[in-house]
Amino acid sequence: MIENKMSISIREWSENDRPREKLVAKGKNTLTDAELVAILIGSGSREESAVALSKRILASTSHQIHELGKLSVKQLMQFKGIGEAKAIAIVAALELGRRRREEDPPRLPVISCSKDAFSLLNPIIGDLDHEEFWVLYMTNAHKVVQKKQISIGGKTGTLVDVRMVFKAALDFGATAIIVAHNHPSGSLVVSSADKQITKKIQQAGACLDIKLLDHLIITEHEYLSFADDQLL
Fold first, then answer.
1. pTM confidence score
2. Any residues with CB less than 8 A from the CB of 210 and at least 6 apart, and which?
3. Residue 12's pLDDT is what?
4. CA contacts within 13 A on the Cβ side of 225
């Protein structure tokens, strides 16, 4: 179906009436239901903005998102300003929301000791023939919110940019980290470079109130923990 050629794009709205910009600047939780639907619609008409149209649609369902999700593409197209493409976008978005509610939230791994961290990272880097540096980003309760590769090196070393370690920590909202790298040689000897990077990360974390809990050196079957060996 052909959309109304006289429709008004969200980009043409006033600064204070742009839900996309509001979402980016203030977060998704600040948007009303109508503003969220307006983002899906994208444009209204010369007579009615996308937000006004969204309010009209929501009013027909007593402002119940659950009831809005029951409307079919054909039913949505009964509203002036809603063509097939817009109706499909609304139906698809609400179906994703329904499926999300049905899913069990993933359980975040909890690190209670160095062995837990080793068990999580060993399958990733334990048997590599080159060095990699990884970080586990965690909450105050030591739940892992993300694990991230920071660098890849050669057989005897890898360079680590401490700024990248903590940029990701801030992005993930982490309050604690565990860092780790592998030794393809199988040796668990701590090098001076290992000690230096650990100290740099620990000092940088202290400035940001992000605690370095441990640094693991991992081989195929074993590991060394800086925390266990009191090297932190």
1. 0.60
2. 166, 169, 174, 175, 176, 177
3. 54
4. 16
